[in-house]
Amino acid sequence: MKAVALTRYLPIDDPESLIDVELPTPTPAGHDLRVRVEAVSVNPVDTKVRAPKAAVEAAPRVLGWDAAGVVEAVGEAVTLFKPGDRVYYAGAIDRPGCNAEFHLVDERIVGPMPRTLDFAEAAALPLTALTAWELLFERFGFDADGADRDRTLLMIAGAGGLGSIAIQLAKRAGLTAIATASRAETVDWCRRMGADHVVDHRQPLKPQLEALGFAAVDAIVCFTAAEPYWAQMTDLVAPQGRIGLVVGMKQAVDLEPLKSKSASVHWEYMFTRAQYRTPDMIAQHRILARVAALVDAGALRSTLTGTLAPINAANLRVAHARLESGRSIGKLVLRGWG
Question: Can you provide one Gene Ontology molecular function annotated for this UniProt record (predicted)?
């Protein structure tokens, strides 16, 4: 089968950083589905895993953690899907990725693809939808269906793939959604996703929020490196509020300002359930099924903003470079194998 892989960890402008390879078609067993991959999306995790380092892989390593496709074969323990089903999923960080014509993935972290979306539109959603859902409704404990209406949520870096779906989920849940963006096109995108307010993360946040009537916010999620915003977040979060983080920290931060507020800090790592084979792995199947139903009902929309075709090393290098530029909006998807 065709695949895109790496053997060395190189800068993305090096043509050897991602290469086209031929690999054996895998055979499913147990709870695995073999999916014929029709579209894939790129995420910051792809660029971080691929980032330059001295390691060399003895065999080609396939990356990719967002896919949509068709179930072609199933393992003997599979009960949720059958051949021919259209599916979408993010996969597991400790298994080969989905940048391949055929991919093995545990059925318990796979969802039925939204009926109203094509493969490219669907591939834009899984990783970010799972991350945002788990953070807002499991880590923070907000009610997905509106019981916490009018609570305030600040989302730092609102125009990326994660912010784009988090804004939509927050609005559907009745939260007051405040996003940050710094360029005219990203401000416009956040508003199109449903943000009630947009503030500039390149400027001090507190005076901008106070001008909007918010002395504090109930919860803050930071979808980028948190260190530059940490002092502002601990100042802005309300007593008994919540701060959510998704990007690993490279510097120590001071938790003491949160003590008197009894405020909490929550890590969200979408791969936790699959990596540790937690007893509730199937929760991701249920979340993706719920997201698909909301898309089909018109309550959520795909965050796709661009496509490249076909899926090959050259186009994936372009996609990685765009993501590494820090200026991408929404999600970029690759479709078809040519």
Answer: oxidoreductase activity
Burial of 58 (0-12, 13-18, 19+ CB in 10 A): exposed
User: Is the Cβ–Cβ distance between 41 and 69 less than 8 Å?
Assistant: no
Task: Note the pLDDT of residue 338.
Answer: 86
* Digit-coded pLDDT (tens) for 200-227: 999 999 999 999 999 999 999 999 999 9
Question: What is the token pair recorded at 112?
Answer: 């039925």
- pLDDT for 71 equals 99
Rg (CA), the chain: 20
Residues 243 and 135 in one domain: yes
Asked if residue 163 and residue 276 are part of one domain, the reply reads: no
Question: Is the domain of 135 the same as that of 248?
Answer: yes
Q: Which of 88, 95, 105 is nearest to 40 (CA)?
A: 88
Average pLDDT over residues 124-128: 98
97 pLDDT above the threshold of 90: yes
Separation of alpha carbons 199 and 155, rounded Å: 10
> In terms of pLDDT, which residue wins out, 338 or 64?
64
Backbone angles phi, psi at 41, to 5 degrees: -120, 160
* Residue 328 backbone class (left: φ over 0; alpha: ψ -120 to 50; beta: rest): beta
User: Into how many domains does the chain fold?
Assistant: 2
> String of b and e for 259-295 (b: at least 16 CB within 10 Å)?
eeeebbbbebebbebbeeeeeebbbbbebbebbbebb
Domain holding 136, by residue range, is: 129-267
Using CA atoms, how far apart are residues 235 and 221, in angstroms rounded to an integer?
14
Q: Is the pLDDT of residue 87 over 90?
A: yes
pLDDT bin (cut points 50, 70, 90) of residue 287 is very high
